[in-house]
Amino acid sequence: xxxxxxxxxxxxxxxxxxxxxxxxxxxxxxxxxxxxxxxxxxxxxxxxxxxxxxxxxxxxxxxxxxxxxxxxxxxxxxxxxxxxxxxxxxxxxxxxxxxxxxxxxxxxxxxxxxxxxxxxxxxxxxxxxxxxxxxxxxxxxxxxxxxxxxxxxx
Length: 154
Fold this sequence. Notes:
alpha/beta
């Protein structure tokens, strides 16, 4: 196994996923691609009642906002890559995709030639899994590539 795709979301627990993927890459002498999917931006513009000091995204939606979200996502991936410094142990690249997260993970894993997908699995209620499913379960149901799941839920 020489190529490991590490799928990241904006959850702070993603650091744990990256660390586990990096450990695997070092053990196997593999290359890493830190991968993030930018979903449909209309979901980012939702307003919520404030909770725990969080007020959601309070900005007007416009057609240029997609480009702003891309810049934020690219910055996120770059910072995740820099987290490891100038390591000569592992080659690290990044890739940003847009669309349905599970579909994009599977599509890029195949096109990049990934030998392993590393991703986190969040704690969700059984009822939520039945009605909504999860990205992790969608990937597991359709992948041709082995998946290493890192539990990051509470």
